[in-house]
Write a structure and sequence with these properties.
This protein has about 750 residues and is of the alpha+beta class. About 20% of the residues lie in helices and about 30% in strands. The N terminus is likely disordered.
């Protein structure tokens, strides 16, 4: 221990010498994990050093100004605009306080900006806060804090973003600094597209995570941006009321330093998640999810009237010999992405819909139906008759942003404001009819896990961002459920993932397992970032995994219709099908198939046999793959294989064609899990056609194995012993045939 402390001290002294030789005097905070250094003359961050590697994650000579204050007119104030700067260090608390004042801007002459940074002992995180004082009316609407404008480049660097499920890129600098073009900025709002309150950047020599721990669900933007010399910066933007004379951040910002990758960052977040209310208040933890949703073995995602939805579901349930539930689009009487919210009556008529659904429910098939939770078609009759524009989201300029999703009709939609009772009541009234009169088992609330800022001063909420959007969604979900009592407990599902929605949604549609079908190749890869933090508190389902070309809504223009909607894709894309289903399986989601037709049971027998095996193996191992906690991805040394990959729009137009490319993927997918009884399992899927020899090596230093135990291999049909492990190290080889799955279980032997 003494030797380790001496080494740590030597590293810190060396770093201090480097900064001294560069002519930068620094005020520093340090503990056993990290060291922070700030320019004594400006307060700029010049050092964020990980003790384990001695690597400085920021460039000391870059202009790492800690904050920017932005006005609605686009002007801003930075630390460089202050005539006076001072700092006070409190060694007993390992903290420092910075103060900027004396600004030249006549609108901010009395403004004082105060920043505090604290580094607790034996923690990998530092705590940052900002306050604005003593201004009559400084007129700012957004604060960027903290800002790090130049993260140091390192080998194998990556940016991981909890964009819903999660995505990672190793090309962040290139994406943000395009050749012969200005540097770009990319932001994600929380709560919303950002499912967790964090961003993380890491490489071989260390990583950092910028996060907040705010339980009020105030809307923020987390952003990365490019700059000169291929720079990569990171910041958080916080909303503030322009009329505020004093302001302080709601909760601290955390800067954490670590070694490892995105999963290690997720572990840091998971260890502190209990400081937030979302896990304990989740629908899973409070046992409020209806049994049929918990027991679903497979979801079918079909569209249009009941003959094309419920009949295929019945055929699929018979073939799978497992409970099948229906994710039902295009049941409604309006054209998709154009006529919302004029959902009623169903396009096949209310009586036909109720009769077909009732018959399916007698066979144990349940259905949730599509209802977008924020869009109103601006060309609809109801838009004009109900004067809906009054209750739409308004931008800072007071206008409605026209959103066009329907490429065939170019029909504009408006986002409705969740902070208005008008919209919540409109949506709940329709949902009540769908659930109680038509008999649906639940509602899929499209675009649910997203939030918007609204500046309409006639609405009953503060202008801009704030907690009011989530408060409005909570009221909406509660109202829908209350209206259904005591007749039924409806399932409410939403698009995407988000911790703030865990107390309100039963199911989260998680589609990034199918990222290749809709995203540009080679830029981002899907990762189960959110699942690594909250899997035991959530239920995930869905993918775009289809054996056919997309369908076409019969209510869209006939001249745009394809010749053969739902035509089978080429069999060469079978490995892509297994890749998407395999990700769903190993990452703990309820499997799903889109656009299923009964004839596929014959024409695509191999793919559906693979899916059936996957469904049954998952149902045998629910204590891991439904209820378990995700562990670090095991390194199994899987070879890479090149597979044909299809990319085409979700909905087919007349001129759409399958875009095809090849990509390298691991032949064997793997993920590790721990059940509530303490046992560990590794889920494995061979998506290739060839047999693979796999070596599984797990150690108690990384996995909660215990000292010794036995190992067994579980398949859909068999269970067999594989041997023992001792001394906290399990090393076992196994053979996986092509297109096969297995779960390797580690049964810990308890000490007497």
């Amino acid at each position: 221990m003494i030797q380790k402390l001496r080494l740590l001290l030597s590293v810190y002294l060396l770093i201090g010498t480097v900064f001294a030789s560069s002519g930068i005097a620094a005020v520093t905070l340090s503990n056993s994990h990290m060291r922070l250094g700030f320019d004594e003359s400006t307060g700029a961050l010049i050092e964020a050093c990980l003790a384990e590697t001695g690597f400085n994650l920021v460039l000391p000579h870059a202009n790492n100004s800690l904050w920017h204050l932005l006005r609605p007119d686009g002007t801003f104030i930075t630390p460089e605009d202050a005539c006076s700067f001072s700092f006070t260090k409190a060694p007993s608390e390992n903290s420092v306080e910075f103060l900027w004042k004396g600004f030249d801007d006549p609108r901010s002459r009395n403004l004082e900006v105060q920043v505090s940074v604290t580094l607790p002992e034996n923690k990998q995180e530092s705590h940052w806060n900002l306050a604005l004082h003593d201004s009559d009316d400084f007129g700012f609407y957004q604060i960027a804090f903290p800002r790090m404008t130049s993260l140091a480049a390192q080998k194998n660097e990556a940016l991981a973003v909890p964009f819903w499920m999660g995505e990672v890129t190793s090309s962040a600098r290139e994406l943000l600094n395009p050749a012969d073009a200005p540097a770009l900025r990319r932001s994600w709002e929380y709560p919303g597209l950002l499912s967790l309150q964090c961003l993380t950047f890491y490489g071989d020599q260390g990583g950092l995570m910028l996060s907040t721990r705010d339980s009020t669900a105030i809307r923020r933007e987390f952003a990365v941006f490019g700059g000169e010399r291929n720079a990569l910066g990171i910041e958080i933007s916080h909303p503030v009321s322009p009329a505020s004379a004093n302001y302080q951040l709601s909760g601290d910002v955390l800067l954490s330093l670590f070694t490892g990758d995105w999963f290690d960052a997720a572990l840091l977040y998971r260890r502190e998640r209990d400081a937030l209310p979302y896990a304990e208040q989740s629908r899973v933890r409070t046992n409020q999810i209806p049994d049929w949703a918990e027991e679903t073995g497979l979801w079918i995602w079909n569209r249009d009237a009941s003959p094309g939805v419920l009949s295929p579901a019945a055929a699929l349930q018979k073939e799978m010999a497992a409970p099948v539930s229906v994710f039902w689009h295009w049941w409604h009487g309006c054209a998709y992405d154009a006529g919302f919210p004029e959902y009623l009556p169903p396009r096949e008529g209310a009586e036909s819909f109720k009769h077909a659904l009732g018959a399916a429910q007698k066979e144990g098939i349940h259905a949730i139906v599509y209802m977008n939770q924020r869009l109103w078609g601006m060309d609809t009759t109801s838009w004009k008759e109900k004067d809906a524009q009054r209750y739409a989201v308004k931008g800072a300029d007071g206008t409605i942003r026209r959103e066009i999703y329907n490429t065939f009709t170019q029909s504009p939609c408006a986002s409705m404001c969740m902070g208005t009772s008008f919209w919540r009541n409109t949506y709940a009234d329709i949902a009540e009819k769908v659930l109680l009169e038509l008999g649906a088992d639940g509602i899929y609330m499209d675009q649910a896990c997203s939030s918007l800022a609204c500046y309409d001063q006639e609405h009953p909420h503060p202008p801009g961002g704030g907690p009011w959007w989530m408060q409005g969604f909570q009221q909406l979900a509660s109202d829908i459920r209350q209206r259904c009592l005591p007749v039924k407990a409806p399932v409410l599902a939403g698009e995407g993932c988000g911790e703030a929605w865990l107390p309100h949604l039963d199911l989260m549609l998680s589609l990034q397992v199918s990222l290749e079908r809709y995203a540009a190749p080679g830029q981002w890869e899907p990762i189960p970032f959110f699942h690594a933090v909250y899997h035991d508190c959530a239920r995930f389902f869905g993918n775009y995994c289809s054996l056919t070309r997309p369908p076409y809504d019969s209510l869209w223009p006939k001249e745009s219709a394809p010749d053969r909607p739902l035509a089978l894709l080429d069999k060469k894309f079978a490995a892509q099908f297994r890749l998407e289903q395999g990700r769903s399986f190993i990452w703990g989601q309820i499997p799903c198939i889109a656009n299923f037709l009964p004839e596929q049971l014959t024409s695509r027998r191999e793919e559906l046999s693979f899916l059936k095996t996957l469904v049954h193996l998952r149902l045998k191992t629910l204590k891991y793959l439904r209820d378990g906690i995700m562990l670090a991805p095991p390194d199994i040394g899987s070879p890479l294989i090149e597979i044909p990959t299809s990319r085409l729009s979700i909905y087919a137009g007349q001129h759409d064609a399958v875009q095809e490319y090849t990509r390298l993927v691991p032949s064997v997918l793997a993920a590790a899990w721990q059940a509530s009884d303490g046992n560990v399992a590794v889920a494995l899927v061979n998506i290739g056609d060839s047999t693979e020899e796999i070596e599984l090596s797990l150690e108690s230093s990384r996995y909660p194995l215990g000292e010794k135990g036995k190992v067994r291999r579980i398949t859909a049909d068999t269970e067999e012993e594989m041997g023992l492990w001792t001394q906290g190290q399990a090393l076992h080889a196994l053979t996986l045939e092509g297109s096969s799955l297995a779960v390797v279980e580690y049964l810990c032997e308890m000490e007497p």
